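Re: the request from the purification team.
They wanted to know what the chain is likely to look like in 3D before they choose a buffer screen. I agreed to run a prediction and write the result into the notebook, where they can find it.
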Amino acid sequence: MTLQATFDGARPAAGAAARIDWTPYVIGVGIGVLSWIVFLVVNTPLGITTALSQVSGAVAAPILGAEAVAKNSYWAKNLFSLDYGTLFLVGTLFGGLGSALLAGSFRIEQVPEVWAGRFGPSPMKRYAVAFLGGIVAMYGARLANGCTSGNGISGGLQLALSGWVFLAVMFATGTATAFAMFRTAR
């Protein structure tokens, strides 16, 4: 860990606490060790989207009715259970919150500065695009039968060709999307 004021290297204002930025190398080692532990303890790869789907089925049951959820072929195949995946899902939420609090970077932000500079300050526009992006990402993860952690991290750690192809395509499309959305005109 390194102590820095901000991600852009600016110094903190007088009296402001320095914040901790996590280095990607430490995080990478941590994810690798976590993956080994998960394989050792529960004999399954890292993954989160199946658990999210299971939780969504459990949330949908009181709204749509248990019979409707049971008739859905996907939810019928992925019944809710309080297992490793659910604990991993909850742990990811609290782990992210904990690291943001430790790093001193936690803040509630409706529209990030980068977004506002490119697409305007409208919170509704930001929420709509984020929601749509979440739908596309979740659909893609379920279509691929795994998410970034399942296909990329676990697949890559097992030296599966599909995991490495997934990671390469993910980085290439992420880079192209970021360039298209956030490049500045010169």
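For the purification team: The first helix runs from residue 24 to 42.
Please add any questions underneath this entry.
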